[in-house]
Design brief:
Layout lengths: L10 E4 L6 E9 L3 H7 L1 E3 L12 E8 L5 E10 L10 E8 L1 H13 L3 E2 L4 H8 L5 H12 L3 H11 L2 H25 L8 H20 L1 H9 L1 E7 L5 H9 L17 E7 L2 E7 L9 H16 L2 E7 L6 H14 L3 E6 L15 E3 L8 H18 L8 H20 L6 H19 L5 H9 L6
Parallel strand pairs: 1-7, 8-10, 8-11, 11-12, 12-13
Antiparallel strand pairs: 1-2, 2-6, 3-4, 4-5, 5-6, 9-10
Helix pairs in contact: 4-5, 6-7, 6-14, 7-13, 13-14
The protein binds guanosine-5'-triphosphate (GTP) and magnesium ion.
The site of guanosine-5'-triphosphate has 22 residues, from helix 9.
Length: 458
């Protein structure tokens, strides 16, 4: 069902990223979209856009209020309701020069449009029942996905997988509600569905718990993987950082303590976004600044998803260094990749703390590819752990967590003698949460919060 709001203003925004490039896409959506586009266009065919059939493309010019040509463009004309927003829509493909884009937007504003707010096109798609709120959120995830796994999951979500899951949950709760009401009605006949209701509630609760349990890990698939490079001073951490990035990003010298603060740099690798973090080397020092840097390195060991622990193969370790490596391995074993650098100048130093250790040389680039492979394997193993079919955002996770608590409470009420009237009230309460999850009963201010996270033009 498409809902049209005659008070709704017509909006315009650039949908493609700002900056110069070959082409840009602008979208005009709203009740006046076709009229506005007609007034700012001069088609090569000599016809007016308003007279042309829906879902057609037209070549021509955007003109300003003095009828001067701004740019040669293509107009994609789409009548409601078969559009993204469910409203009349005209999309303009123009040349991507920021001055052209600004002039086209200015012309449209003079003709009666206004600039769209963050996420306003998607919000209108939700208001017009083109997609539900969960699918709208999936669009935002899709745009910002930093790993191929996140991309796949948000695509599935956009296609309705999470919405269908929530609908299934809602159905179970409605079934439990029906049985509760029936038990209440037939109380005198001593017909009770207590155990059936318990089973339904318990199974719904188990499903929610499974999804919620991997929420923390899901952050990795959404935001990319943090890979910290840590170890003793002068071990070659910055050299490895540069080798993995394939550029001289961090300063490398033979002076121990060269890196004093953490440095981050990102790269796309095998369909994932890696954030590499070079850290200050661990050593005992009285230098205040260096000590703060070392503190940051230790924090990074805890925070990162993967830690590349670098040993200096050209010298023997001091006792405090051995303690650092041992503690690091003991406390963070699953995420550690131990490597021994400088094998080109190696002493007969085979200390590995009982771990698999990759020998390498940042100087000769020996085995850098093996380190990359070890990182990719660790990422694959991390993703294997996350078997939940959906990626929940904070809003969804919070609502599901509250729902889980509510269902646990209902289960505690389902012991004889059962107060069916009270159980029924509680189940009705849970349906408020599923409605809010889907955006059916969400408040305007909460909607504002959700769409604020979107970019303009989406
Ligand atoms: N022979 C040899 N020298 C290396 C290798 N990797 C790095 N170095 C040298 O080791 C020294 C220290 O390298 P860095 O990359 O700055 O080491 P770091 O661990 O970042 O040092 P800090 O930032 O001081 O903790 C430099 O002189 C590098 O040229 C290697 O594989 N073989
Ligand atoms: Mg360094």
């Amino acid at each position: 069902m498409t809902v049209f709001n005659s008070d709704e203003q017509t909006i315009i925004a650039q949908c493609t990223p700002k900056g110069s490039g070959a082409l840009a896409l602008l979208r005009i959506s709203g009740p006046q979209a076709i009229e506005i586009a007609t007034n700012i266009s001069k088609l090569a065919s000599g016809k007016a856009l308003r007279e042309l059939p829906t879902h057609t493309i037209h070549f021509g010019y955007v003109i300003n209020s003095s009828c001067e040509h701004i740019d040669q463009v293509l107009f994609l004309l789409m009548h409601a309701p078969r559009t993204f927003t469910g409203e009349d829509t005209v999309e303009i493909s123009c040349h991507n020069n920021p001055f052209i884009v600004a002039d086209i937007i200015k012309s449209a504003i003079i003709a009666g449009a206004r600039i769209a707010q963050n996420g306003e096109f998607t919000r209108r798609a939700v208001m017009n029942n083109k997609i539900d709120l969960v699918q709208a959120e999936a669009i935002n995830e899709l745009i910002h996905a930093n790993t191929t796994v996140a991309l796949k999951k948000s695509m599935a979500q956009l296609e309705g997988s999470l919405s269908a899951w929530i609908a299934g949950l809602e159905n179970s709760l409605l079934q439990a509600l029906a049985l509760t009401e029936a038990s209440f009605e037939f109380l005198d006949d001593e017909i009770s569905f207590g155990s059936q209701i318990y089973q339904i509630i318990d199974s719904a609760d188990t499903k929610i718990k499974t999804i919620c349990s991997s929420h923390d890990q899901q952050l990795q698939i959404r935001t990319g993987i943090r890979i910290a490079i840590c170890g003793s001073v002068n071990a070659g951490k910055s050299s490895l950082f540069n080798a993995l990035l394939a550029k001289d990003r961090a300063i490398v010298t033979n002076i121990p303590g060269t890196t004093r603060d953490t440095i981050e740099a990102g790269l796309y690798k095998d369909g994932n976004y890696w954030t590499l973090i070079d850290t200050a080397g661990i050593r005992q020092t009285d230098d205040l600044i260096e000590n703060q840097g070392i503190e940051r390195s230790l924090k990074e060991v805890s925070r990162a998803d993967i830690v590349i622990l670098v040993l200096d193969g050209s010298r023997l370790l001091e006792d405090h260094e051995k303690t650092f490596y041992q503690e690091c391995i003991a406390n963070h074993n699953p995420k550690i990749i131990l490597i021994r650098n400088k094998v080109d100048a190696a002493l007969d130093n085979t200390i590995t703390f009982g771990q698999t250790c990759i020998d390498c040389s940042c100087k000769t680039k020996q085995n850098i590819d093996i380190i990359e492979k070890a990182i990719a394997d660790k990422i694959a193993a991390l993703f294997d752990l996350i078997n939940a079919p959906f990626l929940l955002n904070e809003r969804q996770a919070h609502l599901l967590h509250t729902l889980d608590q509510k269902l646990s409470f209902i289960k505690s009420m389902l012991v004889e003698p059962i107060q069916y009237e009270l159980v029924s009230t509680q189940i009705k309460d849970t349906l408020i949460f599923t409605s809010e999850l889907m955006g059916k009963t969400i408040s305007e201010s909460n909607m504002d919060l959700i769409f604020k996270q979107f970019c303009v033009g989406k």
